[in-house]
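Write out the 3D structure for:
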Amino acid sequence: MNVTIEEISSIKKRLSFEVPAETVAIEIEKAYQKIGQSAKIKGFRAGKIPRSILEQYYAPQMEQQVINRLINDSYIKALDTHDINVLSDPKIIDNSLIEHGKPFTYAAEVEVSPQVTVRDYTVLVLQKERFVFDETSIEKQLEEMRQGRAEVVDSNRDAAALGDHVVIDFSGSVDGVLFDGGTAEDFTLELGSGQFIPGFEEQVVGMKVNESRDVQVTFPEQYGSADLAGKAAVFAVTLKKVREKVAPELTDDFAKGFGLESLAELREKLTENARRQEINRIDGDLRERLVTALIER
C-alpha cells in the first residue's frame, strides 16, 4: 500500500492511498464468499449459487463491502504507521471503482492536532472576573416559568388589551376590492405578537366585543405578494371574543408541577443552576483569554 501525505494547513492533512490490485482481488473474493452464504436467488440453493450469477445480482453490494473494507483497513494502518493524531472522522474523496486487476485509490482529508511550541507563560497576568450573583435573575426565570404554564381563558373584560388572544372576523380590500387570502372568520390573534401586518394589531387594541372597525394599514414594500406590496389596505374587523392568559400563582403546588416538593426547593434549584452557569461562564472566559494571550506571545 502506498500513502502520500500532504499538509493542507497546520490542522488539516490529505492522505492519498493506492491499494495494490492483489489486495483488491482478495477482498473481492472474500466479499462474494460472504454474500454467497446468505444470498437467495430463485432456482439455486443457498451457498451453492455460481459466482457468475452472484456477480450479476450482487455486484453493487460487493463493491460497497470491498470499498468499506479497503478504506477502513488502509486508513487505520496509515494513522498508526505515520503516527497521525486525528481530531475527527475522515472526509473520503476521489475514490475509484472496484475493478479486477486494478489498484484501488482514494484520498482522505482529516483534521489533526496542530504542532504547538510552548513559550514562557509564567509571566502572564490575567484578572479573573469577580463572581457576582444576580438574585433578580431567579425572579425573572420564575416569571418565565409562570408564563410558560399560563392558560388562555375567556376574559371578563369587554375591551381587548395588548397580550390578549382575540377572536375576530376580518376582510381586507385594496381600492375597495377584496383580495385573496384577506378574509377569515373566527380567527384567533394574539395582540402584540406581530403576526399581522404592522399597525393592524395596535388598532384592534381597545376594541370591544361585537364592535366593528375599519383598520387601515399599508403592506410592506418587501411583502411576499407582489400584488399587495407597498399598497394601502382596509380591513373590516369585528371583535367576537376576548381571551386572556392567566398564569398560575407561585406556590408549592406550582413547584410540584416540576417534580419538586416546594417553592423554596424550586428557588434553591434555580439558584444552584444559575450559580453554576455563571461560574462556568467566568471560567470559560478566563480560559479563552488565556489561550488568546498565549497565541499572541
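The longest helix spans residues 263-296.
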